[in-house]
Design a protein that fits this description.
By secondary structure, this protein is of the alpha/beta class. The protein has helices spanning 3-9, 22-27, 29-36, 45-53, 59-65, 71-96, 116-130, 145-154, 167-189, 205-219, 233-236, 242-257, 261-267, 292-295, 308-317, 328-341, 345-376, and strands at residues 13-17, 40-41, 103-107, 135-140, 159-164, 198-203, 275-279, 302-306. It has a single domain (3-206, 261-323, 353-376), classed as Alpha-Beta Barrel (TIM Barrel). It contains 17 helices and eight strands. Helix 4 packs parallel to helix 17, helix 9 (167-189) packs parallel to helix 12 and helix 12 (242-257) packs across helix 16 (328-341). The longest helix is centred in the last third of the chain and has 32 residues, at 345-376. It is globular.
Length: 379
């Protein structure tokens, strides 16, 4: 038993791995992490780009695929192969947890982030192609993504909602989930409610990166590491607090939404809550604790998806306490202080959403170019 097992057994939080690589599937590294307590795996276009571009374990399959596939369709075959192997590895966790964990996530094409119909079409295709109960198809929480989420949930499909950066959009995601389940039940398919799973992936560390930058500008000094923190000390004191406070308030929104009479009617039919998932939880600022976004966001019915280094760091020296709602007023007060200091959190949300969509699309395009270059060597 490790501290990762205790995180779930005592803290009620499921530790997931934010990475999927074929060599780790083949050499037992992923199996080792599962034995340490990892209960799920997430992926995204950047993760697949790094995996496929950075190793030769995909070359044999890719070369065979290029005999009768386009580069892009070959990519999806490579990704689906890895996802399938990951699903097989995690299936015992899924079965033992009665469908609570054991999931592997695969994202729709980032080119569809602003295309509702395209997102629904591709998500349906992935669920049909893979057809495993522990698959989560990732859909971004863009304005176009939210109605797609409602539609997919209403069809009984399990969804990982990704790229959530703010509270307003998170509320829309919760509504899309609950109303989607209500539509599923109203269509005479209430028996399927227990088999629909969803997580709402709230990105964390990127919020501090953006807010800290704005705080340093508002403080009137550079405020950077080694700068002597020139500037308004009251404003600079808010650095490193925005992401944690916003996530903690998001948990309050989660608790409020899933304790209403409206939810209890679905719960009575076996529906599962849409758990908040803390994503982007590796610490980007070396001045902050390496477990800032893990130790301070522990609570029941949550997921924290971490890169390997952060998982191993928590297993080594994590602090296991219920922290996500330990001081609810303090979290709200921090957001108020940020507003008073001049930080527009809604603008932060939109900025980070735009950057996230662009980053994943860029990674996807670069990956396809890498594969195109490699395919050219086969002729």
């Amino acid at each position: 038993m490790t501290l990762l097992h205790d995180l779930y057994d005592i803290g009620g939080q499921s530790p997931w791995l934010d990475n999927l690589r074929r060599d780790w599937l083949e050499d037992g590294r992923l199996a080792e992490l599962v034995s340490m307590g990892v209960r799920g795996i997430t992926s995204n276009p950047t993760i697949f780009a790094n995996a496929i571009s950075g190793q030769d374990t995909y070359d044999e399959q890719f070369k065979a695929l290029m005999k009768d596939h386009t580069v892009e369709s070959a990519y999806w075959e490579l990704a689906i192969t890895d996802i399938g192997n990951g699903l097989e590895l995690l299936r015992p966790v899924y079965d033992a947890s009665d469908g609570e964990d054991g999931f592997v996530s695969l994202e729709v094409s980032p080119a569809l982030a602003h295309d509702t119909e395209g997102t629904v079409r591709d998500a349906r295709m992935l669920h049909t192609r893979i057809a495993q109960p522990n698959l989560l198809v990732k859909v971004p929480a863009t304005k176009a993504g939210v109605p797609a989420i409602h539609t997919l949930i209403s069809e009984g499909r399990s969804i990982n909602v990704t790229l959530i950066f703010g509270l307003d959009r998170y509320d829309e995601v919760i509504e899309a989930y609950i109303s989607g389940l209500e539509a599923l039940a109203a269509a005479g398919r209430a028996a399927e409610l227990p088999h629909v799973a969803s997580v709402a992936s709230f990105f964390v560390s990127r919020v501090d990166t953006e807010v800290d930058r704005r705080l340093e500008q508002l403080a009137g000094g550079s405020g950077g590491s080694g700068s002597g923190d020139a500037g308004d000390p009251a404003i600079l004191a808010l650095r490193g607090k925005a992401a944690m406070a916003q996530a903690q308030v998001a948990y309050q929104h989660f608790h409020a939404a899933f304790t209403t009479d409206r939810w209890k009617a679905l719960d009575a039919q076996g529906a599962r809550v849409q758990r908040p998932l803390w994503a982007s939880t590796s610490t980007k600022n070396p001045d902050y604790s390496d477990l800032l976004y893990v130790d301070n966001l522990i609570g029941p019915s949550t997921v924290n998806t971490m890169p390997e280094a952060t998982l191993r760091a928590f297993a080594d020296h994590g602090i296991l306490h219920r922290t996500v709602d330990a001081d609810r007023q303090a979290a709200r007060d921090t957001l108020d202080m940020l507003k008073d200091a001049g930080v527009d959190m809604e603008d932060v949300e939109q900025t980070l959403e735009d950057e996230g969509v662009h980053s994943f699309a860029k990674s996807f395009d670069e990956l396809l170019q890498t594969l195109s270059d490699k395919a050219a060597t086969f002729t």
